[in-house]
TrEMBL record:
Molecular function per GO: glutathione transferase activity
Boundaries of every GST N-terminal domain copy: 1-83
Gene3D superfamilies noted in UniProt: 1.20.1050.10, Glutaredoxin (3.40.30.10)
Keywords: Transferase
Pfam families: GST_C_2 (PF13410), GST_N_2 (PF13409)
Sequence ranges assigned to domain GST C-terminal in this UniProt record: 89-204
SUPFAM superfamilies xrefs: GST C-terminal domain-like, Thioredoxin-like
Entry's EC annotation: 2.5.1.18
EC class of the enzyme, as a word: transferase
Source organism, top-level taxon: Bacteria
The protein's name in its UniProt record: Glutathione transferase GstA
Length: 204
């Protein structure tokens, strides 16, 4: 498979899942923006994803998968024994989907305009910060009593939450109000899969 990715973006989440599972992957770096291109040859990335965004997963049969939440579950289901997602159809799977949807719609898309579109200005940043504050408090309460989002074990929801919540670093947003979240980010950062994904993205 091939993963179209951009360092520092949400494509890190499926990349972490791929490293957790030890899957064979070729990385294809994309420069996102108004004219998104494949870094290797400067070709128009919209020929691959007309919407111009990462992540895109190209499967070995040539088909393309977009949307991080779907991709994370697809990857987990390739190797259910790895335990990155509870079985499809189970109550626990719905809890996973609940977290994935929360991260996507309440966190990821609150950060996006602030992190990737500074041209929106200070007012947009302030609205994002307020929204993220209350969402982080919700996550904090959960992490005070659970090491991971699904309880005792790491899942693809953690790959996604780590990716998005760690955007507080480039934004220099202090985490003092959310100590359990801060400790969680360091715990997840310490995983081999995360270190490997970050290193390989830098080198690609
Ligand atoms: N709905 C997509 C959104 C992905 C997304 O927001 N990707 C961002 C990086 S985090 C991107 O590539 N933005 C460039 C753009 O929208 O032009 C998903 O959840 O996978």
């Amino acid at each position: 498979m091939k993963l179209y990715f951009t360092p520092g973006t949400c494509s890190l989440a499926p990349h972490i899942a791929i490293r957790e599972l030890g899957l064979d992957v070729q990385l294809r770096r994309v420069r996102i923006g108004p004219e998104p291109v494949l870094v290797a040859d400067g070709s128009d990335f919209r020929r691959i994803n007309p919407l111009g965004y990462v992540p895109v997963l190209e499967l070995d049969d040539g088909s393309l998968l977009t949307e991080g939440v779907a991709m994370l579950q697809y990857l987990s289901d390739l190797a259910p024994e790895a335990g990155l997602a509870p079985p499809a159809g189970s109550r626990e799977r719905t809890t996973l989907q609940q977290w994935l949807t929360f991260i996507s719609s309440e966190l990821h898309k609150s950060f996006s305009p602030w992190l990737f579109h500074p041209e929106y200005g200070e007012q947009a940043a302030q609205v994002a910060r307020q929204r993220i504050d209350s969402r982080f408090t919700h996550v904090e309460r959960h992490l005070q009593t659970h090491p991971y989002l699904l309880g005792e074990t790491f899942s693809v929801a953690d790959a996604y939450l780590f990716t998005v919540a760690d955007w507080t670093r480039p934004l220099k947003m202090p985490l003092a109000a959310w100590p359990a979240l801060a400790a969680y980010l360091e715990r997840v950062r310490g995983r081999d899969s995360v270190a490997q994904a970050l290193r390989l993205e830098k080198a690609a």
